Amino acid sequence: MSKKPTARRPKPTTQEAEAVVHALRTHQVDAIVGERHVSFVRLKQVETELESSRDQLRILAARLESQRESERTEVAREIHDELGQSLTSLQLGLAWLTYTVTLTPPVRARLASMSALVRTTIRAVKEVAVRLRPGVLDELGLVKTLRSEAKAFTEHTGVQCRFETNLRNVACHRAGSLAVFRIVQAALTNVARHAQASRAVIGLMKRQNDLVVTVKDNGRGIAKTLVAKPGACGVIGMRERALTLDGTLALAGSRGKGTTLTVRIPLSRVLITRGAAPTS
Amino acid sequence: MTSASPMAVSMSRRPSSPVPHAGRRPIYSFRLFVAGNEPNSMAARHNLTQLCEKHLKGRHRIDIVDVFESATAALKHHVLVTPTLIVLKPKLGVTLLGNLSETRQVLATLRLNGNGR
Fold first, then answer.
1. ipTM > 0.95?
2. Which CATH class is domain A136-279?
């Protein structure tokens, strides 16, 4: 890529310099001829264009995610208000029948069974609504929500899930805490679906100027080929969420030794006030 | 001619003068500095050849200099970037930078627009 010219040349005039700048700006230049070597400029141009494309994609992804959250909120509200209300009315109707009408034992037993089924359905509907739109995130904040998520994960999957943090009394930006919550949610889904783990740990730690979110499991470990595969296990979605907060995401694992997902986000993008006292 | 969007850039090192006639149509002599087969260099080569075929048929000479092969020649001609086209004859005192995709501007700079020369 280089030859070594020896002659020196006079400084370019303003007009010449402007012409060169124009040619560079309009991407009409392949190489710059220096006194000691010739340098390609195409690589730099391609890098600039690539970075610009990435930025546009990130903006698009963030916009799509925001729309998706709005839709989720809407669906959750519909499910909770409409379906939940109807099921509650149905349950009340069944209770009224049980206590006001004289029933034969088989009918009473059938009613009790129906009532139990309705109760189960109401619980399922509430869980779906919460999963779609975690109201607890707005009410209780990120720390308590993740603690609650760990508990719920253990109950639903049988995988012992623990939550660890060194944060206390922190207020979070809504978008930041929602992104962290969704990343953890997606990571736990991967644990339940693929890891074959018996234990999992969610970590939310303040490390210098970063918030470090980890989800570790003791499962079979993600294959190296999958770690390198960008589309695997919803990694793109999680990474995009991290990127919208100027963060990074790393996935590491080895066969039989579990998998660790680490997300590192600048504190200022998530927390409004800070506190760091060891709790677990 | 290749239709890359950015326009050609020209600059003058010496005061420009009218194209000399001497009763005959002038012969144009160009020296085009390129960087191997890089895209703009390829485009400049192609565009210059097409332009000469169309407007200077039989009265042009093109000397291609690859700066990777002959960087000293580039420095000698004060070439800062590639592609650079230097018009050696007639003495227009004109240098064009870029891939020469803006035909009208290139023709105007070479005084080849309008009068059929």
1. no
2. alpha beta
